[in-house]
Each structure stands twice: as C-alpha cells, then as structure tokens.
Design a protein that fits this description.
- With 119 residues, the protein is mainly alpha-helical.
- The chain has helices at residues 6-11, 49-73, 77-109.
- Helix 2 packs antiparallel against helix 3.
- The termini are far apart.
Length: 119
C-alpha cells in the first residue's frame, strides 16, 4: 500500500503519516497520537497560521460579496447584517479545521518541529 498524500489527509482531519487515524480529538484539539499508527502529535503546533488564512479567505469572500451586493442591489443595512454576519461565521468555522490540518500536515511533510531554547 502506498503512503497517503499528507496534505489531503491533513485537510480531511486524518493522520498525515498513515492517513487512517484521527488528527483531532475535538473540533480543533490535536490528538496526542494517531490511534492507527501511534505517530506522536505532541510536537505538532500550527500556532496562529490557520486563523490568519481563515481571516484572509473569509474576509475576502464576505467583503467582496457585501460590496458587490451593495453596489448592485443597494439593500438596507439590516439585510447586510442578516446575510454577511452568518456567512462570516459559517465560512470561518468551515475553513478552520481543514486549514489547521493542512498546516499540521505541512509540518509533517517538512519534518518541522517546534524549537525550544534550553532543550
């Protein structure tokens, strides 16, 4: 059996090493290790990277859609609130887990680990 694509596995929330085990325990909490191959996730830390990408992607999509809607339809402000606040929340929550998985898989692919002084 060939090794899985780590980026695809990470985006799906699977172990980037084997592609079988779960990468997350909860919504965003990284599991201590893979239950399928026992790969250690304790050194995995994506930091603020996924949040930055979520802000950039969701912000662009929602801002573009809101401006486009304003210039074409000219709705009242309450329509913008009803449309774009939930859209921002849904897009942000929908992107956070796959992007965090991608960042962790990229660390795995590049054999990156967190460097600590004094260790």
């Amino acid at each position: 059996m060939s090794a899985p694509n780590p980026l695809a596995a990470g985006a799906l929330g699977r172990c980037p090493n084997c592609g079988e085990g779960h990468l997350f325990e909860g919504f965003l909490k990284v599991a201590p290790s893979c239950e399928a191959c026992a790969y250690d996730f304790s050194k995995a830390d994506s930091g603020d990277g996924p949040a930055v990408f979520v802000i950039l992607i969701a912000g662009f999509v929602v801002a573009f859609a809101a401006v486009f809607t304003e210039f074409t339809i000219h709705p009242p402000i309450w329509v913008h609130m009803i449309l774009w606040l939930p859209a921002t929340l849904i897009i942000s929550l929908g992107l956070m887990r796959p992007l965090k998985g991608l960042m962790l898989a990229a660390q795995f692919m590049n054999k990156a680990s967190e460097h600590r002084r004094g260790e």
